[in-house]
Amino acid sequence: MGDPHGVAIIGLGVISRAYLSTIGRHPAIRLVGVADLDRERSESVAAEFDTTAMSVDEALEHPDVETVLNLTIPAAHAEIALAAIEAGKDVYGEKPLTRTLDEADAVLRAAAAAGARVGSAPDTVLGTGIQTARSAVDAGLIGVPVSATASWSAPGHERWHPNPDFYYQSGGGPLLDMGPYYVTSLVHLLGPVVSVQGASSRPHASRTIASGPRAGTSIPVDVDTHVTGVLQHASGALSAITMSFDAVRSTAAPIEVHGSLASLVVPDPNTFSGDVRLFELGADDWRTLPPTAGYEDAARGVGLLDFVTPGADGRRPEEARAGGRLARHVLEIMTRLLDSAADGRRERIASSVERPPLVPLTPASQWAGGASGRG
Fold first, then answer.
1. pTM score of the predicted model
2. How much is the pLDDT for 74?
3. What percent of the residues of the chain are helix, what percent strand, and what percent coil, each to the nearest 5?
4. What are the DSSP calls for 198-227, one per residue?
5. Same domain? 152 vs 286
């Protein structure tokens, strides 16, 4: 794998544990340091993973840090990314890339000027679930792609989250919370989007927290909580998407893709694997496709590994599969869909991207590299 790549983590919230289980002791990564506003937390993580607890400034300025892993809250994504780029580092962050398109453009402009690279979750799309489905589409198993559906619904995060306020404030809502998994998958499967048409609703003006010390507290709802719309892909295919905090239960498949010769059921894009099922024209039943592409037994952080080893399978350095331009395109799709829902007009998507290279079927032994928790 060559010399270990120097990484510092900024932000040690819940999601950081998933990353640390993958990269904390990975031979391709040297974990130079960890930083969090909670010093006690950073010292505890540093002790566990034999690294150094740092301040944010120390992590940004350390000469051995090549890439900053930005796991801060979304409100800080742009600030930390810009500071990392200014310090001469590459940066890979959690989804969404930033809260707004203006912030995303500022980050990408700064990176281009500095010769830095930007990457972003979700990396779930690099597992065998989405990649096998994409391989089937690319191989022509469904014929000419015509349409897709993507659906996620739940009765609301206030039922389980002790502090769900963010989900119902500006920058929250079901589309910006869960949409990155589904929209990124649709771009992998069907290519970039050129326009969107949306509608949305807000059935409840407030929500009541159901668990934790604030149980019974009413919180205001400042965003629409049911969002639906149609994405027109450059290929001509149409995707219908629904993201909702207002449905009790659904039997809808997470994603379905329909073509002239067959239909494809795609597993949950918030996971790395799952069955991909195909129903061909004239067949009697669905059949499950064996994994043909993707990182096997993948976990959070595989996108960062792909990001820091971009030439491992002949790709150019700018072709990281979880790259900033793709994340920016997905953010534009989501924000324009919300704009369309508000003004009732079809919204054009100004950006475009090439689909990232397909991930070859890669056993865990080849990407996990003996990382903690991996066989």
1. 0.93
2. 85
3. 35, 25, 40
4. EEEE---SEEE--SSTTTT-EEE--S-SEE
5. yes
